Amino acid sequence: MTPIRLVQVSDTHLSATHAYFGVNWDAFRDAMTAAPPDLLVHGGDLSFNGPEAEADLAHGAAAVRALGVPWRAIPGNHDIGEAPAFSRLDQPVDAARMAAWQRHVGPQWWRHDAGGWRLVGLDTALMGSDLPAEAEQRDFLAEALATRGPRPVMVFMHMPPFMDDPADPAPTTSVIPHAARGPFLDACAAGGVRVIACGHLHTYRRMHHRGMEIVWAPATAMVDVQRGLARWDRFPRPGYLEWWLEPGRASHRLVEPARMFVIDMSGWTSRNNGTTTTLPPWSRSP
Q: Which residue spans traverse the membrane (predicted)?
């Protein structure tokens, strides 16, 4: 079987009115035009501020469709909001925000079989939300794992499952809430999950847990150089991941295109509640 070439891109933060990171999307678009993948998976934060500006979701989805490749996407906190008890930006996920994502982008969770693998996409905003959709997604994951047959499973989601210690109970908006984390990891470890592919923290990182590889994709948008150096001893750069899937084996490489620029917004976010969503409108010149 010929390996499937899959591209995982995350945290693009696209917008027509707040086009701060469009130059790096241009570089990504050119790379996809030069070498189209068999499948593209967008790992969340497609939009700049989708919970408040539905037009950002429409703009981001149109940009991905314009690539002309098969694609799937899962929502991030800047697309659909956050679990209500962990809503740092006061943008709790709710029915209206979920409907906007479904209208412009697609389902919040999905499965797709390719390259001898079962690919599963999940919405981390629902984890720890106590919304009815959380139980629906949990049932979906159980069914997707139970019916995988001999296929190994690769799970795509926006937030990483944990930072360093899966047992850390501290409240957080960086990773899956503690109460939801344990059952999720138990289901994955028992259900044939071999890879968890995520994003959200705008840096590339690899970890291993209970036989599973956990891979964080970098952002194509902004980075936080100070945090990357202090926390992970890594200078964060924009880019994406290229995966090759064949029966029983998945491998990847980090791609950091020369035309993607390091856009460090930490000066702004340190003064504005840790978010870029307070940036004023800015549209690039033609």
A: none
Q: How confident is the model at residue 284 (pLDDT cuts 50, 70, 90)?
A: confident
pLDDT digits (tens, 9 = 90+) for 232-275: 898 999 999 999 999 999 999 999 999 999 999 999 988 887 78
Q: Across the beta sheet with 212-216, what order do the strands follow?
A: 110-114, 117-121, 153-156, 193-198, 212-216, 205-209
By DSSP bridging, strand 249-255 and strand 240-246 are antiparallel
3-class DSSP assignment, residue 64: helix
User: Given CA atoms 40, 120, 103, 200 in this order, what sign does their dihedral have?
Assistant: negative
- Using pLDDT thresholds of 50, 70 and 90, give the confidence band for residue 285: low
For the 4-269 domain, the top CATH level (class) is alpha beta
Closest CA to 10 of 121, 147, 148: 121
pTM: 0.96
* SS3 category, 218: coil
Query: What is residue 17's DSSP assignment?
Result: S
Point out which residues pair with 147 in neighbouring strands: none
Residues 272 and 84: beta-carbon distance below 8 Å: no
Q: Are 219 and 12 in contact (CB under 8 A)?
A: yes
Q: How far is CA 93 from the centre of its chain?
A: 16
Q: Please state the rounded mean pLDDT for residues 169-190.
A: 95
> How far is residue 248's CA from residue 117's CA, in Å, rounded to a whole number?
8
- Closest-CA residue to 260 (of 37, 28, 9): 28
